[in-house]
Every structure is written in structure tokens, then in C-alpha cells.
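Protocol step 4 of 6: structure prediction from sequence.
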Amino acid sequence: MVTLVAYRQVFWWTVRNASSTVFRPPEFWKCYRHTLCFGGRLSCSSDSHRVLQSTQHTHEVGPPCRKPETDFSLRSLADMGFTDAEAACVYAAVSKAKGGSTANHALSTLFFLGLNASTVLKILDKCPELFTVRESQLQQRIGNLRKLGLGEGSLQRMVAYFPQLLTVPVTTVKHAVMFLRTKCLFTTHQIRVILRDSPAVVVDDLEQLEYKIQYVYFRMGVAQNEMVKSRLFRSTLDKVRHRHCFLERRGLYETPDKKGQTSIVNPKLDGILNVDEDTFLTQVAMATAEEFDVFKRLLARECREEEQQQGRIEYDRDDEEDDDSDDDEEEEDDSEDEDTGGKSGYRKRRKK
């Protein structure tokens, strides 16, 4: 018992004579903040003892953490993962486009989508004006695309293929989606695939787009599902018309009847549009490049003549309507004169 009491007295004597700063809570809190600022941890007793000793001697909190660079500079581009050559190219292009402070936000947004430095550099070459768009607008447009059911993989593909998509206002995208749904009768899933594979459709002229869809549907007999699978919206109307009419004139394509039947087997729309011109001529049309060039010139002449004839018909129709309106006005004037003449004669007879 005496030994236990002696041990306790020695212990409390040691505690009272130790440096009080080690156990002082405010100094310990300063030390804890100091180590957090530099990313350290108080898990090692030796490290914490050294930090405590430094705070005991200086009685000052360490310097605040250095903030990462937010200004657009070569150093910030290097921190993003660009090489020195890529950083120089990006810095020159963005400076020329006067992106300035918004460039860092645009680059961060693209990296957040999962795009690497080389892809971002290609995007900059295709669409330098993207780096002048404000961060709030970018987030709003990306959020709208996500609401349409386009996930991260689809967004990466769309932005890499057509980066101008992020410069298009949200209202324009919504209007194009509504047009495809109501006017062209595409389903929600088909519209999602169209946007993913052919994002440039949101900036196409809607009248030309509707005419192209009607041409493929009525003249070629192709349904909406095959249009989507064949990526029709990546092809221009002239390309579709040239290749279809060339096959039709050569007897290699036939418009289906009301039952969807033909006397020959038509080539698939994908095989007509999604091949280069040489492959189309050798494997589908079985013709030469000279024949195809001559046909395109003749077809262009036919289209001009049809437009002129249509213009004459409309002009003659307008003239006929104007003549009819003039005749109606003359008849009305004559009837008014007769009415007024009868009344004036009646008045003259009464005066007599």
C-alpha cells in the first residue's frame, strides 16, 4: 500500500513539473490546424512532438495553405495534364479567342466529363469559341442533355464529335427535340440516339430537315427506325437525293408500293449513305465517277427548271387571283353606281 501511494506522488510530481505548453489546449489546437493545412496527420507521436515543439518556440500558427492557381496561365494548363507543347498551343488559341478567365472553367468542365488532354486540344481546334462560354451556361446545357437521357459516355462522344453543341442555347435544343417528336414522329429513344450519333441536328434548318425526312420516307420507302440506325442526319439532302436518284435511274432502286413491296431488292440506306463515293460507285451503283458527275450536273439542271416552272405557275396563279379581285371590285363599283343612280333619279322626279 505504501509503495502504491509513493508511485502516485511521483507521477503527479512529474506531471506538475512537465512543460505545461504540451498539455495546453489552445496550443494543441493551433498545432492541429497547422498540420491539417500541410496535409499532415497527428497519427505519429514523433511527428506531433516535433510540431508541438515548433509551436512552443514560435507561438505562431504556420503560414496558410497556398491556393491553387485560378488564373489562366501555362502553369495552370500544365497542372491540368497538358504537356508543354500542348499547353503552349492551348494558351495561344484561347488568348487569340479572348477566352481569358472563362477558359479555365471551360477546360475544367471538359475534364470533368472525362475527356483527356489530347481530346480537349482537338476540341479547341474544332471550336475555339467554346472557351468563351461562361461556366453557368456550360453547366446548364450539359444538365439539359442529361435530362434527355444522355449519360457520360454519350456526352463524351457528342462533345468530341460536335463541340459546337455546348455553344447552342438550351431553348434551341429543346425546340429541335420537340420538332423531331411532334412533326417527324420519332420516339423518345430514337431522339436520344439521333442526338448521340448526329448532334449537329440541333442546328440544322428545320424546314430542310423535315423535307429530307419526308423524301426518305415517301420517295425511298424507309421507316423512322431505319433512318435512325443508318445515321441519316449526318448526310445532307443533296447527298441523299444524288445517290438515290442515280440508283433509281439505273434501275437499281425502286419506290415501294402501298404494301411496301418492290420487284427488286433495294440496297439498304446504310449501304447507300455511310460509304465513301468510290465504294458507292463500285459496289452499289456499278458505275464510274464520270457517269456520276454528269448525272449530278443534269439533276441540278432539272431541279432549276422545276423551280423556275413552279415559280411561273405560282406567278400566273397570283395574276389570276389579282384579275379576279379586280373584276369583283369593278362589279361592286357598277352595282353601287346603279344603286346611287336610281336613288338620284327618284329624287329628281320628286322635285318635278
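Step 5 (inspection) to follow. The chain is about 70% helix and 0% strand.
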